[in-house]
Amino acid sequence: MTPGNAGPLVLAAILTSCAPTTSEAPRPQPAPSLAATSSAPSQSQAQAQAQARPTPAPPAAETLEERHVSKSPGVAGGVTILWPRIVPRDIVDENRDLGFALQQQMRTLVEKHLPGRAIDFRPEPERVCPKTGCTGVSVGLLLSRQGQGCLVLALVSRPGVSPTRIVPWVGKVQLRADTVGFREWPESQITVADYVPCNSLLTTMDAQEAAIADALKAAAQ
Predict the structure, then answer these.
(1) Distance of alpha carbon 134 from alpha carbon 128, whole angstroms
(2) Has residue 122 been placed in a domain?
(3) Which of 3-7, 20-24, 67-71, 170-174 has the lowest mean pLDDT?
(4) pTM of the model
(5) What are the angstrom distances between the C-alpha of 208 and each of 76, 124, 127?
(6) What is the domain extent for residue 210?
(7) Is residue 97 a part of any domain in this protein?
(8) Does residue 33 sit within a domain?
(9) Distance (Å, rounded) from C-alpha 78 to C-alpha 145?
(10) C-alpha to C-alpha distance for 89 and 84, rounded to whole angstroms
Protein backbone atom coordinates (compact mmCIF):
# COMPACT_ATOMS: atom_id res chain seq x y z
CA MET A 1 0.00 0.00 0.00
CA THR A 2 1.46 3.33 -0.99
CA PRO A 3 1.35 6.44 1.29
CA GLY A 4 -0.77 8.22 -1.28
CA ASN A 5 -3.72 5.85 -0.93
CA ALA A 6 -3.33 5.01 2.76
CA GLY A 7 -5.18 8.14 3.91
CA PRO A 8 -8.63 7.38 2.46
CA LEU A 9 -8.49 3.79 3.72
CA VAL A 10 -7.51 4.84 7.23
CA LEU A 11 -10.20 7.51 7.29
CA ALA A 12 -12.82 5.12 5.97
CA ALA A 13 -11.95 2.57 8.67
CA ILE A 14 -12.35 5.20 11.39
CA LEU A 15 -15.62 6.50 10.02
CA THR A 16 -17.10 3.00 9.83
CA SER A 17 -17.27 2.94 13.62
CA CYS A 18 -17.75 6.73 13.93
CA ALA A 19 -16.81 6.49 17.59
CA PRO A 20 -15.68 9.42 19.14
CA THR A 21 6.25 5.40 23.88
CA THR A 22 8.70 4.06 23.07
CA SER A 23 11.28 4.09 25.86
CA GLU A 24 14.98 3.73 25.38
CA ALA A 25 16.80 1.16 27.51
CA PRO A 26 19.38 2.77 29.83
CA ARG A 27 22.91 2.55 28.51
CA PRO A 28 25.40 0.76 30.73
CA GLN A 29 27.86 3.15 32.31
CA PRO A 30 31.50 2.39 31.51
CA ALA A 31 33.62 1.27 34.42
CA PRO A 32 36.14 3.89 35.59
CA SER A 33 39.63 3.42 34.24
CA LEU A 34 42.51 2.50 36.49
CA ALA A 35 44.01 5.96 36.00
CA ALA A 36 40.78 7.62 37.01
CA THR A 37 40.38 5.60 40.18
CA SER A 38 43.97 6.05 41.25
CA SER A 39 43.69 9.84 41.04
CA ALA A 40 40.17 10.17 42.54
CA PRO A 41 39.92 12.82 45.30
CA SER A 42 39.24 11.84 48.88
CA GLN A 43 35.69 11.97 50.26
CA SER A 44 36.31 15.27 52.06
CA GLN A 45 37.86 16.80 48.95
CA ALA A 46 34.91 15.64 46.82
CA GLN A 47 32.41 17.17 49.27
CA ALA A 48 34.28 20.47 49.23
CA GLN A 49 34.34 20.50 45.42
CA ALA A 50 30.62 19.71 45.26
CA GLN A 51 29.80 22.57 47.62
CA ALA A 52 31.93 25.02 45.63
CA ARG A 53 30.41 23.98 42.30
CA PRO A 54 27.29 26.01 41.39
CA THR A 55 24.10 24.03 41.00
CA PRO A 56 22.96 24.07 37.35
CA ALA A 57 19.56 25.59 36.76
CA PRO A 58 16.90 23.07 35.62
CA PRO A 59 15.92 23.35 31.94
CA ALA A 60 12.92 25.58 31.38
CA ALA A 61 9.72 23.60 30.83
CA GLU A 62 8.26 23.88 27.35
CA THR A 63 5.05 25.89 27.33
CA LEU A 64 1.86 24.57 25.75
CA GLU A 65 2.25 27.08 22.91
CA GLU A 66 5.84 26.02 22.27
CA ARG A 67 4.83 22.36 22.10
CA HIS A 68 2.53 23.17 19.16
CA VAL A 69 5.34 24.68 17.06
CA SER A 70 6.86 22.53 14.32
CA LYS A 71 10.37 21.37 15.18
CA SER A 72 11.17 21.56 11.47
CA PRO A 73 10.79 24.53 9.10
CA GLY A 74 10.23 22.17 6.19
CA VAL A 75 12.04 22.06 2.87
CA ALA A 76 12.38 24.85 0.31
CA GLY A 77 10.00 24.11 -2.53
CA GLY A 78 8.25 21.45 -0.47
CA VAL A 79 5.08 21.23 1.60
CA THR A 80 4.78 20.98 5.38
CA ILE A 81 1.63 19.19 6.49
CA LEU A 82 0.94 20.21 10.08
CA TRP A 83 -0.91 18.31 12.78
CA PRO A 84 -4.62 19.29 12.88
CA ARG A 85 -6.00 21.79 15.34
CA ILE A 86 -8.81 19.95 17.18
CA VAL A 87 -11.44 22.00 18.98
CA PRO A 88 -12.79 22.15 21.57
CA ARG A 89 -9.76 21.03 23.55
CA ASP A 90 -11.68 18.49 25.65
CA ILE A 91 -12.42 16.31 22.59
CA VAL A 92 -8.78 15.92 21.53
CA ASP A 93 -8.14 12.51 23.07
CA GLU A 94 -11.15 10.74 21.57
CA ASN A 95 -10.60 12.34 18.13
CA ARG A 96 -6.85 11.86 17.77
CA ASP A 97 -7.23 9.00 15.28
CA LEU A 98 -9.68 11.02 13.21
CA GLY A 99 -7.28 13.97 13.20
CA PHE A 100 -4.47 11.73 11.96
CA ALA A 101 -6.69 10.27 9.23
CA LEU A 102 -7.62 13.76 8.05
CA GLN A 103 -3.94 14.68 7.95
CA GLN A 104 -3.29 11.60 5.81
CA GLN A 105 -6.17 12.59 3.53
CA MET A 106 -4.59 16.01 3.06
CA ARG A 107 -1.33 14.33 2.17
CA THR A 108 -3.13 12.45 -0.59
CA LEU A 109 -4.39 15.74 -2.04
CA VAL A 110 -0.97 17.38 -1.83
CA GLU A 111 0.62 14.46 -3.67
CA LYS A 112 -2.10 14.63 -6.31
CA HIS A 113 -2.19 18.38 -6.94
CA LEU A 114 1.43 19.32 -6.15
CA PRO A 115 3.19 16.22 -7.50
CA GLY A 116 6.89 15.74 -6.91
CA ARG A 117 7.09 18.12 -3.95
CA ALA A 118 8.95 17.01 -0.85
CA ILE A 119 6.51 16.54 2.04
CA ASP A 120 7.37 17.19 5.68
CA PHE A 121 4.64 15.38 7.66
CA ARG A 122 4.61 16.77 11.19
CA PRO A 123 3.59 14.66 14.20
CA GLU A 124 1.28 15.56 17.06
CA PRO A 125 1.16 18.22 18.49
CA GLU A 126 3.10 20.30 15.91
CA ARG A 127 0.33 22.38 14.34
CA VAL A 128 1.97 25.77 13.56
CA CYS A 129 5.13 26.85 11.72
CA PRO A 130 8.12 28.36 13.57
CA LYS A 131 8.18 32.11 14.21
CA THR A 132 10.13 32.65 10.98
CA GLY A 133 7.55 30.67 9.03
CA CYS A 134 7.86 27.39 7.16
CA THR A 135 10.37 27.22 4.31
CA GLY A 136 7.83 25.86 1.84
CA VAL A 137 4.05 25.82 1.57
CA SER A 138 2.37 24.89 4.85
CA VAL A 139 -0.97 23.14 5.19
CA GLY A 140 -2.89 22.79 8.43
CA LEU A 141 -6.37 21.59 9.39
CA LEU A 142 -9.03 22.55 11.85
CA LEU A 143 -11.34 19.79 13.09
CA SER A 144 -14.36 20.76 15.14
CA ARG A 145 -16.78 18.11 16.33
CA GLN A 146 -20.15 18.28 18.06
CA GLY A 147 -21.53 14.84 18.83
CA GLN A 148 -21.71 13.00 15.50
CA GLY A 149 -21.34 16.24 13.51
CA CYS A 150 -18.00 17.29 12.03
CA LEU A 151 -16.56 20.48 10.59
CA VAL A 152 -13.19 20.54 8.82
CA LEU A 153 -11.28 23.52 7.43
CA ALA A 154 -8.08 23.47 5.40
CA LEU A 155 -5.50 26.12 6.36
CA VAL A 156 -3.07 26.90 3.54
CA SER A 157 -0.13 29.33 3.66
CA ARG A 158 2.63 30.48 1.34
CA PRO A 159 6.25 30.10 2.50
CA GLY A 160 7.53 32.39 5.23
CA VAL A 161 5.58 34.62 7.58
CA SER A 162 2.40 34.63 5.51
CA PRO A 163 -1.35 34.91 6.18
CA THR A 164 -3.30 31.67 6.26
CA ARG A 165 -6.07 31.06 3.76
CA ILE A 166 -9.16 29.40 5.27
CA VAL A 167 -10.81 26.89 2.93
CA PRO A 168 -14.04 25.16 4.09
CA TRP A 169 -13.71 21.43 3.49
CA VAL A 170 -16.47 19.71 5.46
CA GLY A 171 -19.50 21.51 6.88
CA LYS A 172 -20.87 25.00 6.34
CA VAL A 173 -19.34 28.14 7.80
CA GLN A 174 -19.72 31.88 7.42
CA LEU A 175 -16.33 33.56 6.99
CA ARG A 176 -15.81 37.09 8.26
CA ALA A 177 -12.57 36.93 6.26
CA ASP A 178 -11.09 34.13 4.18
CA THR A 179 -7.62 34.68 5.65
CA VAL A 180 -6.20 34.95 9.14
CA GLY A 181 -2.87 36.41 10.25
CA PHE A 182 0.25 34.27 10.58
CA ARG A 183 -0.16 31.78 13.47
CA GLU A 184 -3.50 33.33 14.49
CA TRP A 185 -6.48 31.14 15.36
CA PRO A 186 -8.79 30.53 12.40
CA GLU A 187 -11.78 30.30 14.77
CA SER A 188 -11.65 34.09 15.06
CA GLN A 189 -12.89 34.42 11.47
CA ILE A 190 -15.61 31.77 11.28
CA THR A 191 -19.16 31.20 12.42
CA VAL A 192 -20.39 27.61 12.16
CA ALA A 193 -23.59 27.37 10.12
CA ASP A 194 -23.94 23.59 9.99
CA TYR A 195 -22.04 20.44 10.86
CA VAL A 196 -21.94 17.44 8.52
CA PRO A 197 -22.46 13.87 9.79
CA CYS A 198 -19.01 12.53 10.52
CA ASN A 199 -19.79 9.27 8.72
CA SER A 200 -20.18 11.18 5.43
CA LEU A 201 -16.80 12.92 5.58
CA LEU A 202 -15.32 11.18 2.55
CA THR A 203 -18.20 12.10 0.24
CA THR A 204 -18.23 15.72 1.35
CA MET A 205 -14.46 16.01 1.00
CA ASP A 206 -14.63 14.81 -2.59
CA ALA A 207 -17.12 17.57 -3.36
CA GLN A 208 -14.73 20.25 -2.04
CA GLU A 209 -11.51 18.88 -3.53
CA ALA A 210 -11.35 21.52 -6.28
CA ALA A 211 -11.31 24.35 -3.73
CA ILE A 212 -8.48 22.69 -1.79
CA ALA A 213 -6.52 22.11 -5.01
CA ASP A 214 -6.86 25.77 -6.03
CA ALA A 215 -5.59 26.94 -2.64
CA LEU A 216 -2.60 24.58 -2.77
CA LYS A 217 -1.60 25.67 -6.29
CA ALA A 218 -1.97 29.36 -5.44
CA ALA A 219 0.25 29.00 -2.36
CA ALA A 220 2.90 27.15 -4.36
CA GLN A 221 3.22 29.82 -7.07
Answers:
(1) 9
(2) yes
(3) 20-24
(4) 0.75
(5) 28, 25, 22
(6) 67-220
(7) yes
(8) no
(9) 30
(10) 12
